[in-house]
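Z., the sequence and structure:
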Amino acid sequence: MPSRTPPPMVRINIPTVNVSEVWTPTPLRKQRLGARFIKLYLPCLLIVSLVVNIYYFTRPEPLALPDALESTRAKARPHREHDSVDFGQLTDLVLVPGHGVYMGDGSPLHEVNWYLLNEQQGEVGAFMAHIAKAIEIVKEHDSALLLFSGGKTRMDAGAHSEAQGYWAAADKMGWLTRDVYHRVMTEEFARDSYENVLFSIARFHEITGNYPDRITIVGFDFKRERFLDLHRHALRYPKIRFNYVGINPPGDVARLASAERANAYDLFARDLYGCAGKLKQKKIDRNPFRVSHGYARSCPEIALFFDYCPANPTAVYDGDLPWLS
C-alpha cells in the first residue's frame, strides 16, 4: 500500500499587539469644544440676560383705560326681564314718525343731546310727548305693535337713524318695561311722512306676517290733515281704521300750521306719492348714506306699490292691496 504524503502546512502569522499601543479616545477634542463654548457663547448669553434685565426695569407702564371705560368694562349689563310675545297675534300698528335725532348720550329731555335743525329748536319736549303717548297706547292694548319710523336722514348726525334715536330715548327714560319691550321696534328707511306710513305697514308685515287691521299715528297735531286727508287716501286705507293723535309743540302753532300747508300739505296734494319736484329732491337729500330698503322682497303682495309714480300725480293706485281684503 503506497504511503500518503501529508498536506503542506500553511503558516498563519497572527500579529501581536502591545498593550501600550492600543488606541484609546483622547479628551483633547472635548476640552477644545468646552473652551470654545466658554469663549463664544457665554458672552452672548450674558449680553442677552443684560438686555432682558434692562428692558424689565425700564419698560413703559401699560396705558391705563380712562375711568369711564374702566368702569364700563367692569360692569355687566343687567339682565332684562321680557314678557314673551306671539307676534302673529298682533293686529294694531302704532306709529310715531321721527323728526330729530337723539344721539344716545345724556338725558333725552335736553336738546343739547339731539341733532336738530334750526326750526326744530324747542320741539324736543313734543318729541318726548309723542314717544310717551305711543307707549301708553301700547301698554293699554296687548295686540298693538309700536314702530318708531325714520331713516338716517342727516349726514351731520352720523349713522344714527331717527327711529333708533327715539327707541334709545324711550329706553333711556326707562319706559321700555317688560310688558312692552318686545312690542316696541323701529322702521329705519322712511325719508318723508308718506314713507313713514307705507314703510311702517311693510315693517309691521315683516315682524308679524300680517298687515295691520288698524293704524294709530302719534305726531304733531298741525300735521293731522296731511296724514288723514292725503297719505291715508294715497294708501286707500279705510278711514274708520285710521286714527291720529296730535300733540303740538309750545310756541306759535299758527305759524307752524302755515309752514306745514306751504311746505308739505300743498306739495303732497299735487303729488300724492312724492314722485317729482321738491318732494323727490327732499327724499334724495334725506338719504345721505345711500341706503335702500328691502320691503319689496319681504312684502311681495305690494311690491309694485313702492315704485308707483303715475303719469297723473294725483291718480290713486288701483291695484290690489291686502288691507282692503
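The two ends are 143 Å apart (CA to CA). The CA atoms of residues 110 and 124 lie 8 Å apart.

Let me know what you think.
H.
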